[in-house]
């Protein structure tokens, strides 16, 4: 099976997903008056590491907003699974559900099948994190094939603060392709 890889500097794909109220949002566009967006793709309610990571991200939401970065998270869980997961989460940022395998493929994430019905009842994305700039271009990407490899949040936030500082004139890295 071949998979796509999102290239830094290219347009982030239009991915529309629903929140708990059934309202749809395009994950390629920031909201709340911010001009960048961080999209965190997580495995789902069955993953305790995802729960910890999302809760840890929540403590950095204000700092991300301070530098103009909107924070959202999405999984392939159903609306009911997200509602049950909310009981374990203490986050103030939007969570979205029902990311479909075709959308996962658009994002170039690794997709896993559940090991059993007790784990979950649908294919799910392994962790990924995308930061999209004010031009709709992919600026930062991290894609993993398992829940044990994720960006260190304080380092990530410091790095985004540095990138966003106009004095640093820091370009999108990894955008060059070789034939």
From TrEMBL:
The keyword Ligase does not apply. Gene3D superfamilies: Glutaredoxin. It comes from the Bacteria. One of its GO terms (molecular function) is peroxidase activity. InterPro entries: AhpC/TSA, Thioredoxin-like_sf, Thioredoxin_domain. Residues 6-165 form the Thioredoxin domain. The keyword Repeat does not apply. PROSITE patterns: THIOREDOXIN_2. Pfam families: AhpC-TSA. CDD domains: PRX_like2. Transmembrane segments: none annotated. Coiled coil: none annotated. Keywords: Oxidoreductase, Peroxidase. This is Thioredoxin peroxidase.
